[in-house]
Amino acid sequence: MTTSSDQPAIEVVDLHVDYIVRGMKRPVLRGVSFTIQPGEAFGLVGESGCGKSTTAYAALRYLPRNGRISSGTIMIDGEDVTRMSADRLRSFRARAASMVYQEPGSALNPTIRIGKQLIEAFVVLGQSKSDALKNSLAALRKVQIADPERVMGRYPHQLSGGMLQRVVIAMALACDPKLLVLDEPTTGLDATVEAEVLDLVRTLRSQTGAAILMIAHNLGVIRSMCDRVGVMYAGKIVEEGAADTLFDEPRHPYTVALLHSIPRSGMRKSEHALSTIPGTLPPLGADLPTCVFIDRCPLVTDVCREVAPELIDIGGGHLARCHHHDQITALEEIPGPIAAAPSTGTEILSIEGVSKTFHQKGHKIPALVGIDLSLADGETLGLVGESGSGKSTLAKAILGIHATDEGSGLTLDHHQLSGSISKRSAGDKRAMQIIFQNPDSALNATWTVRRILARSVRKLTGVDREAGDRKVTALADHLRLSPRHLDMKPSQLSGGLKQRVAIARAFAGDPRIVVCDEPTSALDVSVQAAILNLLAELQSEQRTSYIFISHDLGVVRYLADRIAVMYLGRIMEVGDTDAVFNGPHHPYTEALLSAVPDVDGAEHNRIPLQGEIPSPADPPSGCVFHPRCHRFIEGVCDVAEPPLIDAGNGHMIRCVIPAEQLVELQKVAR
Amino acid sequence: MSATVDTLSAATQERRRARRENWHLLRRRPSFIIGSLISLFWIACAILGDHVTPYNPLNYTTKPTLTPRSGHWFGTDKIGRDIFSRVIAGARDVLLVAPAAAVLGVLFGTILGMIMGYRRGWVDLLFSRFIEALLALPVILIGLLILTLADTSPLLGAITFHSRKLLVIYIVALLFTPIVARTVRSAVIGERELDYVTSAKLRGESGVYIMSREILPNIMGPIIVELTVRIGYAIFTVSTLSFLGVGIQRPSPDWGLAISDGRDLLRANIWWPITFPALAIATLVVGVNLIADSIQSVYDR
Question: Quick one: pLDDT band at residue B1, thresholds 50, 70, 90?
């Protein structure tokens, strides 16, 4: 693919960037160097705050107003971007490089039709209106939009996230850029949509020969997309190499720690706890004269504290910034298992025929249709499915936030639960709590941690002030929140600590059931590992049951005992975690599993899902999944909705194809 | 595994610094300094009033309609009172009535806005339409109407005529209530969707508790901005009502009243009885608005 070896697409040399915060210069990039050849894809990974996005923005000089490139060069197409005049920079950005951001919605103007915005991208290049229109249609076809004329007439809010990201990519490619910067292009998209967008980027890359700089926190995505990868920490690249080599044989302690903190290769909580990285990233602008990782490194010795390590080639273009890169194998220790929750198998929550219909402008929107599930004590039930499948609606229906339809049956400990929280007894309220995805929204920003916890303890348990205070202290201690955290407000805490507070609050009344609604998806992997360990420990101590919602199948597999797969407000498959992951699968589950980019680099045949999730207001006939199903049988699937059929040991699949046949079909597909 | 120990001392310092920073930022703004100086000057006049004026602002001192001169820097009005003394003392009534009206208006508006934004449904629908209808009419017109009614109707008059100033305070407050309610409502609608509100419902908190303890502290920013902006408007409204003869009554040295009294003299080229009170109103309104603008821009930062 590399056509001109003489000149790289971008060459960044010793780039230093400072942010001016309250008049103080705080270094963010501390000498970043990398080169991307034409047609090559280079990925930058690292936890939030490591400087990967700053690097991407600096490459096109899109730094925020208080950001300054203090030294270094960025050569693109033989020109130094850091020295360009404002005019030159504008034409450079219009013609030589493009950027795709995380939020496709915010990259487009919501009040202007797609077509007009796209045409403008071509008109800027000096094309006539008619040429621009022609090229716009061609561009949409290029990003595999089936009906470009129709999409051109739409407003951004009328398109799904995946479609919008395609449009944004089409705009970015308008100028036929030499460099395409992708900043978390698929974060926030469903795994199935993510897989499609990534496929598209791969195809376009081979067609256009553009060099790609890709930022992502998902290591699986980076591995599947990039030729070479740089691992960043505290504003420096600490390791760089070919993607496969780097992920299979990491040679920097930070890379090793990152990889160990991800639940992967079918890892389960019953096998071992997740590794965490002790400590936190040094604060923005900290003085780091020697190795940037010393505070958290298990291999640290005196030399690390005295001499800053250089990026050393350890063979085959694999670079590591570590004095002890040859001792990495010493880090192979794996923590022991977390004691299993002593589940007695007693059913504590039973969900029978739960439905929820929303009414909107006279239309009935059935968001949940006849859900049957049960939950035993000390058990974790994972809920998976694309967004819009009804996972969160189900969780809210169980909690009574959404009042369920007439005829829905919720039974807690053998007594009927009211469908609405306001009608539930104090005991029932105490029995079920929730941990939300975003702790910033879940915690009242004007309250101190102590007040947040104390209010929940006293309201839920009804104890007096003194006993309440004792409980708060015990709770904080249990969740490893130090006493000084108690008098702080949420904004003073890091993301991981905030989520601990949210967990502490959920456990304030010793609940029987805790709903975890994507509790770690806003967190970095190392923090996620600590939170998942904590949840598993709490469960094994208190025999709490979890309803665990996540789009990350690796996380669900690690934590859940049983899994329910939802689609369009219905359960498509439910069974023990191993049964659901090992198969036979419902065709929908099969497609979901195939969409996950694996950090271990395992290749699997991806099963593309056709079209988008239909509107629940107008569900397809027969099996609701049939229009997107790759195993669709005409005249059968579109006629009658199949029931959940037992495939053995309580593993239920809602598919007309018998389990034995599914096994055979899916064996072939691999 | 080890507990995540964050750089907390740094975070705490950061936050304290940010709070100090806000105050520093405010103090460094020229518009805030000028606005404060002007406002403080008039507040001092309001407090000290006739204790510092060269003449008794209510009494005849010398010949009427004297031009500004030494001894009577701003001249005298048509019944020979010293205008300088009256301008100084005239700060008192307006600075009593206007801020009180603004505070009450923001209070009522906050309560109404919170109920509308939190309860939604028919309560919101009903009040929203009512507020829209009310906002279509000029504030002054409604104020004038109610105050005139109060003067003529024996019932309304009997209930509220204890103090004219109190009546004006209540009416201006009521006029501001819908405007404030609208701002507060939209702030509440933004907050009520957040998960901490759901969490409060899940532990069984009442609506009143959620509104007053959970949501209110989170919307104090817009409420404070609203209050400072309303004070400026209130000064204007109160002065206008006095000018129209339905607000503060004679013989108060109130500025609006003074302008009303000196209006006829303007035709005879006697400009000083209305120019100085008018300047007083203008400077006070500008001063208060300068403060309001700086607070708003610091909050919006």
Answer: very low
